[in-house]
């Protein structure tokens, strides 16, 4: 069983999409849609300078998966494997047991089910290929398309936090976290 993204056989295909590990050659394409206001307003870091973004993107390569349709980049996925919380005596059993996931899609391709298709495949990668036991994702509560996607994926809302997330516009916004266990995912298939 694969333990990291680098261990996976790329590309992975779905009905309409191809997923592959990101390379530094993807920097301009990703910058193109992530800097758009409708996308950037929800991102942790707004890419506003291509040279600075190139450095940041290079750091993100081990956790970034590209979404392509007919060879064109239409979005990206985030996957960071981490240890689950555990008491000291059993912490080895929680090593690499869960992942945080996320997504960003070029708005020109929104509304066609591409994000759902890509994120479903990301869950399959997490549970089948990487053998993870739990996956979670977080977003601003105001980012309705993102939490609706989490719900379409069968993820359960585990947290609704009031004014816990400081937005770059200076407002404290509510945040949400959704999660899914491998057993839940398999039962829903």
From TrEMBL:
The keyword Magnesium does not apply. InterPro entries: Acyl_CoA_acyltransferase (IPR016181), GNAT_dom (IPR000182), N-acetyltransferase (IPR051531). It comes from the Bacteria. The lineage of its organism: Bacteria, Bacillati, Actinomycetota, Actinomycetes, Pseudonocardiales. Keywords: Transferase. This is N-acetyltransferase. Pfam families: Acetyltransf_3. One of its GO terms (molecular function) is acyltransferase activity, transferring groups other than amino-acyl groups. Residues 17-183 form the N-acetyltransferase domain. PANTHER family: GNAT FAMILY, PUTATIVE (AFU_ORTHOLOGUE AFUA_3G00765)-RELATED-RELATED. Transmembrane segments: none annotated.
